[in-house]
Design goal:
Blueprint (H helix, E strand, L loop, with lengths): L1 E10 L2 E11 L4 E5 L6 H8 L7 E6 L2 E2 L7 H6 L1 E4 L11 H11 L5 H14 L15 H13 L5 E5 L7 H16 L3 E5 L3 H7 L2 E6 L2 E6 L1 H6 L4 H10 L1
Parallel strand pairs: 3-8, 3-9, 6-7, 7-8
Antiparallel strand pairs: 1-2, 1-4, 4-5, 9-10
Length: about 240
């Protein structure tokens, strides 16, 4: 579903991603961890071309992400993204936030978009908030709306960039629970997170990135008990 072949990325002269090789299969849940500034967000953002790669090849669902001929809108329709800060439209209700893109981008009717939105609002556990404005919701609820909004586009891939990092501790669980459900249902997911419990429980693979390089790529059981890389070991000793 996602293939990085020898991908490099520079910001000016700064080499942020170095020879990234990473293959993610349909239905896999891959958790990316690593120190701040190591390139995790950049790697994620290359997948839906919020960033362009400098060299190498990146193929997502059969589309060459950096080929000029690739329909970038089609690519992005296949990929939902959830950010640390929920990025909901403050002047729109929850329902409007969720129905906007399916109507505009996928061109489906308002009625169908509403039905779909309600389906996903139920899935994330807050159908009663359909007509509320984001500012009246808790952080955990806003993030669940953001996930429902992503899902309403019926993507093949969901990207999560530290989705619980901005939340109060008591709200982290409700967001992780929604993500666990998605994972169990077979969604292809790439998740940048510091939640090691989630990684252990849900990830098929854990990727450790340091200074723009993949230093480990292992099943959680192996990664958490016997990391091979020194930096990964050091990192784990700090976060666990
Ligand atoms: P992470 O998500 O692992 O914290 P990022 O991918 O956000 O790391 O950033 C990796 C490095 O690239 C950091 O040193 C950051 O300062 C730098 N960086 C990120 N975005 C840009 C940008 N748009 N322009 C220049 N440097 C950037
Ligand atoms: Mg980041």
């Amino acid at each position: 579903m996602i293939q990085f072949h020898q991908v490099n990325k520079f910001y000016g002269t700064f080499h942020v991603l170095k020879d990234i090789n990473l293959h993610i299969k349909e239905g896999e849940v891959v958790v990316i961890i690593g120190p701040s500034g190591s390139g995790k967000s950049t790697l994620l953002r290359c997948i839906n071309r919020l960033e362009t790669v400098s060299s190498g090849e990146l193929i997502v669902d059969g589309m060459k992400v950096n080929d000029k001929k690739t329909d970038i809108n089609r690519l992005r329709q296949e990929i939902g993204m959830v950010f640390q800060h929920f990025n909901l439209y403050p002047h729109m209700t929850v329902l409007q936030n969720i129905t906007l893109a399916p109507m505009k981008v996928r061109g489906i009717s308002e009625e169908e978009a509403r039905e779909t939105a309600m389906y996903y609002l139920k899935k994330v556990g807050i159908p009663e908030k359909a007509n509320a404005y984001p500012s009246s919701l808790s952080g955990g609820q806003q993030q669940r709306v953001a996930i429902a909004r992503g899902l309403a586009m019926k993507p093949k891939i969901m990207l999560f960039d530290e989705p619980t990092s901005a939340l109060d501790p008591e709200m982290i669980g409700e967001v992780l629970d929604v993500m666990k459900t998605l994972a169990r249902e077979g969604m292809t997911m790439v998740v940048v997170t510091h939640e090691m419990g989630f990684a252990r429980e849900v990830a098929d693979r854990v990727i450790f990135i340091d200074q723009g390089q993949i230093k480990e790529d292992a099943p959680p059981q192996q990664f958490f008990t016997q990391p091979r890389d020194d930096r990964a070991r050091l990192f784990l000793s700090r976060v666990l």
